[in-house]
Specification:
9 helices, 7-stranded parallel beta sheet, globular, single chain, about 210 residues, about 20% strand
């Protein structure tokens, strides 16, 4: 299965979520490859850090840019799970990846700056479905404030109801320091001592797979 994490805005926790999904799959004994299609190389650096610890289950990784369609199709024939981290912008990698992916997960923060990008992204999704009609698209709210007084989560849900091409997931990823702490160690939060963060990723895993 090819699962791509992509959006039209950076800083939404896209790479962080992608690597955490990979870590969770690896811990389940799955054969997983991470395709870093973002030139910032956040995901590839995470894998390099992970490789320094032989006790952590293996996550394979390649970096591929521009037209990634054929690469994703080939990897899907050789790996159980292909996880793609596309750049947070309207890129060739995002567009060509959509034509091969089985699922597109769109991480976004519950903020106006992120929500304002969804209209243009929906147009790209519609175009991609001309070539890949089976593409499933889900919105994933990330970096959500844990303070229950803040109503950003409810406001974002209402806003996304105007975009039928992007089905909002009930699962959310909250703003937690452990996500930042795990990255330089090449770990996922399921490999850290934080049950709340681990439960968020495990819930997302159950939904996606």
């Amino acid at each position: 299965m090819i699962v791509m994490f992509g959006s039209r805005k950076g800083g939404c926790g896209k790479s962080t979520t992608a690597v955490n999904v990979c870590a969770a799959l690896a811990r389940q004994g799955k054969d997983v490859v991470l395709v870093d299609a973002d030139r910032q190389s956040t995901s590839a650096k995470w894998v390099a850090d992970r490789d320094e610890n032989p006790d952590l289950p293996k996550v394979h990784c390649i970096q591929k840019y521009d037209n990634i369609r054929d690469t994703l199709i080939d990897l899907n024939n050789r790996y159980e799970h292909v996880i793609v981290d596309a750049a947070g912008k309207d890129s060739r990698e995002l567009r060509t990846g959509m034509t091969a992916a089985h699922k597109l997960i769109v991480p976004f923060k519950p903020s106006n700056a992120d929500l304002d990008t969804l209209a243009d992204l929906e147009k790209i999704i519609i175009e991609a479905r001309d070539f890949n009609p089976g593409l499933e698209v889900h919105g994933l709210m990330t970096m959500v404030p844990t303070n229950p007084v803040i109503r950003e989560r409810e406001e974002a849900r209402e806003y996304l109801s105007d975009f039928p091409e992007i089905a909002l997931l009930g699962e959310v990823i909250c703003e937690r320091k452990v996500y930042r702490d795990a990255l330089p160690e090449g770990r996922g939060v399921v490999e850290m001592d934080n049950p709340k963060a681990a439960s968020e990723i495990n819930a997302l895993m159950q939904r996606i797979f």
